[in-house]
Amino acid sequence: MKVALIGVGQAGGKVTERLARFDANMGFGAVQGALAVNSAKADLQSLEYVDTQLIGADRVNGHGVGGDNELGTEVMQSDIQQVLGALDGRVTSSAEAIFVVAGLGGGTGSGGAPVLVHHLQQVHDVPVYALGILPGRNEGALYQANAGRSLKTIIREADSTLLVDNDAWHAQGESVEGAFETINERIAKRVGLLFASGEAVEGVGESVVDSSEVINTLRAGGIAALGYATEIASEDSAENIRTAMSVSRQALLTGTSLPEATTADSALLVIAGDPDRIPRKGVERARRWLEDETGSMQVRGGDFPLESDRLGALVLLGGVERSDRIQEFMERAREAKRKQETEQADHADQFTDDRLENLF
Ligand code: GDP
């Protein structure tokens, strides 16, 4: 699937850069253009693989909006024409979809990404998706509250919002902060493979994935999730039937970007590997298992021919917003918002208490 990418904010820019780099290094050619937008100049200066656009310079002078996502919304609104202008020529006629990438818990990405999605929808005919990063459980209350508001708005605006929970793809024992590098690498690889799977070489493999299958899987709207797992495969495809099942199970049950989100409206199972090692029977069996497990009647399937001694399963789920994980997150966000409001009220109260009188 040929895509144009726009990263908003620090996390958005970094992940977009990783995606562009992965696509270039692998020679997939799925990423047609990549732009990073930020109100913090320093964050843009560290990026190499993407074009950059500073916003809000008249308001924050290149210093960012801090954790103020309402200000993030305002600066994106004020400078939207510059951002859309910077995209001219990047969202070419060959782009089949646009992805707006952002960490939902901060300021610029959290507030700016929903605004950008809204405007892109007015200007472009191709689907506009969001790739949103949810703060981990241990990130502060401000991040949770910001992400809750941002998620609510971006779901309304985007054709589908692919979510990555920061608690999902880091190695055990790593702190979330220390794990950003690992998480970003994993996002780049998995999402990069998803883009590239629709680009599979023609004439290789029996049922290669087409971009329209990705788009149709995301047509359910709402929230999407992505799972991935690989295992060493035998050279004889007949011996890999169990492997195809096993990687598919792991991709859905332990390898997903949104843990425990396994009930979906639609799904796509991509089996990646050397065409000679991909077992037809195993793929079909895994696809049927995925139908049962997700409760979806619309499970698409296909191969992604790659040179590798491993077999990989990439599972894209559409319409997972009913999952407990999302409800748990939204509750966490609401609780954080309530706490913020009470704290603000407490601070205001401390000077109205009349046991301490004003001096004059
Ligand atoms: P912004 O620049 O104001 O949009 O804010 P950030 O992008 O720095 O932070 C927003 C959210 O993204 C927070 O929940 C962070 O924990 C998270 N975040 C920041 N940097 C990264 C990163 O490099 N990778 C990942 N996965 N998350 C990040």
TrEMBL record:
Region (Disordered) spans which residues? 335-360
What Pfam families has UniProt attached to this entry? CetZ_C, Tubulin
Family, similarity comment: Belongs to the CetZ family.
Q: Please state every residue range assigned to the domain named Tubulin/FtsZ GTPase.
A: 2-203
Give the organism, scientific name: Natronorubrum bangense JCM 10635
User: Could you give one GO CC term from the UniProt record?
Assistant: cytoplasm
The free-text function statement in the UniProt record for this protein reads: Involved in cell shape control.
User: InterPro entries, from UniProt?
Assistant: CetZ, CetZ_C, FtsZ/CetZ, Tubulin/FtsZ-like_C, Tubulin/FtsZ_GTPase_sf, Tubulin_CS, Tubulin_FtsZ_GTPase
Q: What CDD domains does the annotation carry?
A: CetZ_tubulin-like
Q: What keywords are assigned to this protein?
A: Cell shape, Cytoplasm, GTP-binding, Nucleotide-binding
| Annotated gene | cetZ
Its taxonomic placement starts with:
Archaea, Methanobacteriati, Methanobacteriota, Stenosarchaea group, Halobacteria
Protein name as it appears in the record: Tubulin-like protein CetZ
